[in-house]
Here is the input.
Amino acid sequence: MRQLGLGLTMAAAGLAMALQTARADEELPIGVIAAQSGSFVSAGNTIVGAANLAAQQINDAGGIKVGDKTYKIKLYIRDNRTDVNVSIAAARELVNDIGVKAIWGTETHDFSVSMAKITGPAKVLQFSGNSSLGAVLDDKAVADDGWLHYTFQSEPQEWQRSGSTAKGVLSLLTPQLKSPPKHSVVFVGNDATGQYLSSHYVKALEAEGQKVDLVQYPPDTTDFSPLLTRIKGMKPDIVHFWYNGDSTLTAFPQALKLGVAPSYFLFGVDPGIYQERSLKADVPVTMSCVPVCWGSSPFPEVKQYFEKYFGLGAAKGPQSSVSLLYYDYFFWYAKALEKVGKIDDPDAVVAELLKSDYKGVVSPVPLVFNKHHQVTFATEVCMVEPNTSDKFKCAVEQPPAAPPPGDNGG
Amino acid sequence: MPMTDNSAGKVGAAPEGARARDRLALLTADNASVPLPAGVQAITAILLAALLIALPWLGLGYRFLSIAITTLYTAIGLYGLGLQFGQAGIMSVGHAALMGVGAYASAILSVQLGLGFWTSLPFAMVLSAIVGGVIGLPTLRVGGQHYIIITFCFCALFVIVLTNGGTFTGSATGLDVGSVTPLPGINFDKLSNNYYLVLAALFLALAATYLIGISRYGRTLRAIRENEQLARSVGINVDLHKLGVLMVSGLFAGLAGVLQLYYLRHISPTLFGAFPSLYLALMVMLGGARYLYGPLIGAVIVNFLPEVLNLDPVDSRIAYGVCLLLVILLLPGGVGAGIKNIYCALAGGFDKQGGGSNGRA
Here is the structure.
């Protein structure tokens, strides 16, 4: 009988301890919607990689202290299969079935916009790294009753990135050329992102005194030689391979073979990839990363970040650095929750995010959201010495103060 | 009693040694012209309707319901394709573009003139029908694979025009619309209400398809499908009927496109390109274009297969390819034919049924 009593007492004590532990580790459900398969997988996987790393670090550090409770992040990761219908179904599931407090993703403008029409009415915060959201994030959309009130753009405005990139490219290439470059050709994929991004970049180059021709190629092009031959006939000083790093890696070797231009700029191609693929050119080549390069970063925080990021098994690819468009915002969101003291007050969290700043990995200057829920940070541009694959010179360019003439900023 | 179906051959009075082969022929036959008993048809319709109406209450979750909505509006578009392919024998691999005409017409009317869902819907459907007829004009001169290539070209051109259409079409970024205008007491922002809206449209499409199938018009279309020259020789205005069915198909596509637009509330050219069009063709072939429930079955298979089996897009495409091969080899009439054959086999074979060909079951 005594043994039975002792057993019951121990069981009760165990149960109490288990309940105590459960109470101490409340769960903060956060959703991630990204392409883990399909054509956008290389960008989508970076969102998942960043989310896993950030959640692990926050949880290992004890979680998020909100009021008198401590929350551990529980990630609900959904593969959108590069399909807008699956993205929407996943958003519905995360918002309505699971009840997440915030969603990170997606890698695609169209998907993010459609998702925002679900997260907005449900008052679920959404962090999307699509600079093309700038086209829809306006005063009305982000107002208290606006459909994008809970959406945040975790990438700088495109005119800012275009401005800093154009400045960086020209400052690195000009000393390498016989005469200052005057004629640029922007070579870009003709899709939603390509159209939006190139419209700003052309204006940014023109603001730097360049005569600019825009040549667009259909998405999924693999043989670029007809268009590159046409570009060669334009006699440009610089060919800017804009926006799609994967397409650029196909087109750039073809351009080198054809001798299209005396210098090149490769957007979204990391020095690490340039080195891994042993690419070599007998002319100066510049490249930039979104947002900073994993292959050649001047910042120790960035180097440490990528060591941990790749340490978790993430693949090294042209778009690996995109993960940094998502990582810092987990910590910033956690900080905002702690400050607000409640996890069920999204309006207060939005207000807190708009008035606070956060010193993260992506930028040495603290991140701040502007009134349209967009951040600002610098762009890193690197140049590889001709006939080498691993000798880089990098510069970090700050964004311009205002959009260039002819660019409305949206 | 001999079967009237060509592909199955005479199976009713098979000799003993050929029984197994006959059973296989029975299960793989394309028996679209053999009607099921009226009672079975009615019970099937009632059960299916009850299942579809009850779906939001089955507690399957929002994800399931979202994919169900995608399946239903896709099926509506497929009923148009099913009519032109299954009944009239005119295949298209540009049907998504026809849905895009409806979707973009509605979106442009919303953005430029402020018209809502209900007011823009008839315009969008009529425009899709007209465009369907215009694309159909070449069918008066060419047919078969030549027309398929024309529809593919239309699809590619449509995407190019949208992508380079400036602010009018929203270029590659696309266009946004608001919610479906609420009806008294019904807010369509609620997912289940949105589901019922699309379901109501599906019932309309099903009813229209059924009525066309059993009508004189449907029989005329099938006559054209089976032998165009013969149909012409007996006085059927083949050109008019071909254009007519393509316009009806366009109406269905326009309806599906507008429903898709107001479900996604954002559209862009990529939704209406060659790839989505090929998927539509795949769905209608998998399900069975000649069967009343074939398009719906095809839409369910393609939309839910990756969900149920957790397939990524690459695996899905392989699975679809394998399914299509199996259907072509074993079920020329599609999965719809297979289901009907199984029923017929269980119910005692075709020889116990009537042999008329007054419609589709």
